[in-house]
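Hey all, sorry for the wall of text incoming. These are the two entities for the joint prediction.
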Amino acid sequence: MKTVLALVRGVLSTDAQADRVVPPTGFTARLTLFTATAMAFLAVFAIALSLAAGQLAQNWRDALAGTATLRVQAPIAEREVQSSRALAILQQTPGVASARLISEDEQKALLAPWFGPDVPLAGLPVPQLIEVTGDSYDAAGLRLRLQAELPGAVLDDHGRWRAPFVRAAGRLRALAWASIFLIFGAMGGMITLAANAALSANVQIITVLRLVGATDAYIAQAFVRRFTLRALTGAAIGTAFGLFAIALLPRAGEQASVLTGLGFDGSDWLWPLLVPPIAGVVAFVATQYASRRVLGSLS
Amino acid sequence: MIELDEVAYSYGGDALLTAMSLSLAPGSFHFLTGPSGSGKTTFLKLCYGALVPTEGQLRLFDTDIRDLNRDGIAHLRRRVGVVHQDCQFLDHLPVTENIALPLTVSGQSVAEHGGNLGELISWVGLGARAQALPPELSGGERQRVALARALIQSPDIVLADEPTGNVDWEMSQRLLRLLVELNRMGKTILIATHDLSLIRAAKAHVQARVLRISDQRLKLAGADL
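and here's what came out:
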């Protein structure tokens, strides 16, 4: 723990003299900066996707929750009687908040996409629909009672419609999180390679530093500090670009889908701000690892 | 200060140095001579812990070098000033910062040693070249920068590998005078050189012991030197 704290202190310290012992390196500096910028940009999108998928799953879960539909299938002549009996059963059922017959106009509107607006419902054997609200009734018990008393009535609590959507949104969210981990993993890999290249290109510097009594921790710190600060800078730039791009995306308000609901609301804006510090930690660990390996191999 | 007891060093199965025993007392002045490729540089590297003996025991400041890890060796090396044959520098830093490098890596404030640093730069005659970069220096100037860097921490021992190898006679005499002066200040000096005229010139000013590496072994050189 003490070692880690010393390393963190080393990265945060502003020892200008120590900073100068490693010469500025061209392509590894640019590679680290570019990688951190690009990965942070992608990470912001992955976070937005994850939040949008989570919100969508919640919306789908909430949208139909607490409602059910009772479908009364009966010959036209008996439809009204059986519907009344169904309503009576529902009103007697504990936990049912309300039950109402779907009017003919509402049923016409539901069928309009398939049969047009002037479908003659009265002469067709379409079932009578009853909207049921309430989320504390015993659905299984109600089904059994309906089966016994009204064999043509079917209770649909919408679960089979909701479940696949909620599951899909959940998986989309998990994929977004996996993408975030992969993005930071790839960033760590790229920075390790860049740090390896920088250390290998500076073998002469390392030899001189060792000759004058530099410890491995001192040598590593010079590289770790440089790469961590570069990654932090790159990630800050990438995050800013990502947030700007997200802010420019069109929003669809209440009708949000994954595509039109990509964005941040309220405290969600704080999530992307974690990207630069995480990138810094990733760069710190990656450069430490690369330094230990290279310095060990040079002994 | 440095004690070798039957020290041997092999690389890739080939013995480079064998059965070397020596004790460098504080304040002593030694030359190490021998033909090119005889192992003088290897011997010096053993003395400052850049190489570890494959056999025998080497004690640096009463510590067996094999008992130390890399950081332990780094700390001991701060007490040894090394003037390398090819004067390794950080080419992107000016002379002053290269000389101050041992202070920098040991976490000491260069500002606190500013006076010493200025004095040292003047002492080696590089006052006018303090802000020059190493690639802009002549061979003699590079050797003097290397000497100043070796001395900035006031080490107990100075090890110099062919310090006059790339300089003219006049400059080599000047460097020798600096090393003799250091020895008079109480520093232990070990100079590896194949330049016998340098050894003869030094003997006029200082009581020096001359060692020779021959047939992979360390011997006391004859009176002809």
